[in-house]
Amino acid sequence: xxxxSPGRPPGPLTRPPGPLARRxxxxxxxxxxxxxxxxxxxxxxxxxxxxxxxxxxxxxxSSPWRLPTTPNWGNYARAWTDGLFGQAxxxxxxxxxxxxxxxxxxxxxxxxxxxxxTTRFNSSLTLFFALGLGIPxxxxxxxxxxxxxxLRLVNSLFGLIIVYVATSLPFAVFFLTGFxxxxxxxxxxxxxxxxxxxxxxxxxxxxxMARGGLVTVLILNIIQHWGxxxxxxxxxxxxxxxxxxxxxxxxxxxxxxxxxxxxxLFAGVALVILPxxxxxxxLGRRIIEGMTVGSVK
Length: 297
Known about the structure:
Elements: H1 19-52, H2 57-62, H3 74-81, H4 85-116, H5 122-131, H6 137-150, H7 157-181, H8 186-193, H9 198-209, H10 211-226, H11 230-235, H12 244-258, H13 262-293
Helix pairs in contact: 3-13, 4-7, 4-10, 4-12, 5-7, 7-10, 8-9, 10-13, 12-13
């Protein structure tokens, strides 16, 4: 027979929330609405940009918050032809695609070696790549331009790809090193017992298992360089090799002499933003999964 003390009600004991739990609850109450407001503001800005790209210049100022009476698709045609966005789009695809592939080809083997071969220099090498994340682009701009000019790689898409790869490697190697470290070593040991060479083990076993991390680095690299302006503005000097960001700047400068074409300008901005936005909406979940898996061991 159970005996219940008269001064204590039956049931499990519950403790009042501590100060940390109360602070987390208060932060959640304040933070969640702010995050949703920020997300709603970004969605509203994107929709307003798309609607403005289909309006005439007069309609943008007379009724900025209304739907376009008649969609003006000629804005995109003018931006594509007059703003030279066609050639710029091809150049951007070549530069961004070449940068992403070259970064993966160089970063994946380096990260695998740093995560598997244990020497006294591994920590220093990993720290060396991590320090590259904190170097501002303005610091290396002038010496990098001098070196690239001596190699005759200024005003060249290949030279711009080299610059992008060099600036992308620190993050890619640092991220993939942590990702490869989460993969089980037992698979490599089993492959070695079966007679597989280290190169074959990396190429046929470990690299497919790291597909989530590789896709994450690939997507982040594309998003980073699709609209990059600083390096492109320094190393590209003619319109034949300009990227989309430079074409948008050139189209904006044309408006100072040929008159304001706000509909065409909004269409040009949409041409730069929409591919990156579509890529993130399509593959955003893969980015989150890759970063989450690589953050724990």
